[in-house]
Design a protein that fits this description.
327 residues, alpha/beta, Rossmann fold, 2 domains, seven-stranded parallel sheet, three-stranded mixed sheet, globular
C-alpha cells in the first residue's frame, strides 16, 4: 500500500513512518519546504527506514499546493497528522492555529475528494475537542459533547466535524482519531512531560541549577507511549467505518506531578530538586482531568497499549540524553 503522512517531521509522524516501513508499505512524507528539515527525523528513524521514505513538498494552507500533491501522486491512504498542536501557542496565535488545523484539513479533504476519492483518510483529531467534562461524568467516550475550551481544541473540532460530515455526505472513506495524552522520543520540550524530562537531563549534566520549572502538576491524564498510539492509527486504517471517530488512549491516569516524581526517582533526584511553578507554563484555561473510554477502538481492532509508563519515560529521558550534548 502507498501511504502519505502529513506532519511527518512532527512528533508522531516519524514513529508512524517506522511502523509503515516495517509493515512493508510504501511511505511518502509531506514536508512544508525543501530546506532539509526532513533529515531531522533521523533522531528516531533509522537510516534503513529513512532511505525508504519518499518526501514530497507542499503547504497545506495553500489549496493550490495541496491540490498538486494529490494530482501528481496516488495514495491508498493518508494519515493527516500535520497541525499546530500546542494548546498554549493557540492562545497566542489563534488565527494561525485555525488556518493550519482547520483550513489545512479542508484543503486536504477537498483535494482527495476531487482527485482520488477512493483514497482513505485518517484525520488526527484530539481529546481536546471534548473540553473539560467533570471526572464524575465517567470516562470520556465518543458520544460526549464536543465542547473545546481553547483555540487549539476549537480548530481541531472544526476539522473533526468537517471530515466526518464529508465522509457521510459524499460517501468518502474518511475517519477521525482522537488521541489522548501520549509522549516519547521527539516530543517537544514545550509539552509538560517532555519539558520535565529535558530539564532533568540538563540538571544531571550540570547545565541547569537543580530547579524544575513546571506548570499545573495536579492535571490528571491517561498517558500512552507514542508507538502504541501510532499502532492504533495503523490498525484503524485497516478496519474503520467511514465517518466515525475513535478514541485512542492509555489505561492508567496519573497526575503530571506523579509522572515528574517517577522521572526524578529514576534519575536519583528525589528530594534533590526544587519544583518551581512558572506562570508561562500554566494554561490560561486548564483541563483538570482527561480519562478516556477506548472500547470502540479496542473492540474493532484488538488494539491495547502495551508499553509501561516506566519504559516510556525511560525512552524519553534517553532521547534527551542523546540530544543534549554540550552546555
Amino acid at each position: 500500500m502507498k501511504y502519505l503522512i502529513t506532519g511527518i517531521t512532527g512528533f508522531a509522524g516519524p514513529h508512524l513512518a517506522n511502523l509503515l516501513v516495517q509493515e512493508n508499505h510504501e511511505v511518502y512524507g509531506l514536508v512544508r519546504s525543501s530546506n532539509g528539515m526532513e533529515a531531522d527525523i533521523l533522531d528516531v528513524v533509522p537510516d534503513k527506514n529513512y532511505n525508504k521514505i519518499k518526501f514530497l513538498y507542499g503547504d497545506l494552507t495553500s489549496r493550490g499546493l495541496t491540490d498538486a500533491v494529490f494530482k501528481n501522486n496516488r495514495f491508498d491512504g493518508v494519515f493527516h497528522l500535520a497541525a499546530q498542536s500546542h494548546p498554549p501557542t493557540s492562545f497566542v496565535d489563534p488565527r494561525g492555529t485555525f488556518e493550519a488545523n482547520a483550513v489545512g484539513t479542508v484543503n486536504v479533504v477537498e483535494a482527495i475528494a476531487e482527485y482520488q476519492p477512493a483514497c482513505k483518510l485518517m484525520f488526527c483529531s484530539t481529546s481536546e475537542v471534548y473540553g473539560a467534562p467533570a471526572e464524575s461524568a465517567g470516562p470520556i467516550n465518543e458520544k460526549f459533547p464536543i465542547d473545546p475550551v481553547n483555540p487549539y481544541g476549537i480548530s481541531k473540532a472544526a476539522a473533526d466535524t468537517y471530515v466526518r460530515e464529508r465522509a457521510r455526505s459524499l460517501k468518502l472513506p474518511f475517519f477521525v482519531t482522537r488521541a489522548f495524552s501520549h509522549t516519547g522520543p521527539r516530543r517537544g520540550k514545550n509539552f509538560s512531560i517532555s519539558s520535565d524530562a529535558y530539564q532533568i537531563v540538563r540538571v544531571k549534566k550540570g547545565f541547569q541549577d537543580p530547579v524544575i520549572n513546571v506548570g499545573t502538576l495536579s492535571s490528571k491524564r491517561v498517558i500512552m507511549d507514542v508507538t502504541d498510539c501510532v499502532k492504533a492509527y495503523y490498525l484503524l486504517m485497516q478496519k474503520f467505518s467511514p465517518g466515525e471517530a475513535y478514541n485512542v488512549g492509555g489505561d492508567t491516569p496519573y497526575t503530571i506531578g506523579e509522572v515528574l516524581d517517577k522521572m526524578l526517582s529514576m534519575e536519583g533526584l528525589t528530594g534533590k530538586v526544587e519544583k518551581r511553578v512558572d506562570p508561562k507554563l500554566v494554561r490560561p484555561i486548564d483541563i483538570p482531568v482527561q480519562i478516556c473510554d477506548t472500547s470502540k477502538c479496542r473492540n474493532l481492532t484488538g488494539w491495547a497499549p502495551k508499553i509501561s509508563i516506566e519504559e516510556t519515560l525511560r525512552k524519553l529521558l534517553d532521547y534527551w540524553y542523546d540530544k543534549i550534548k554540550t552546555a
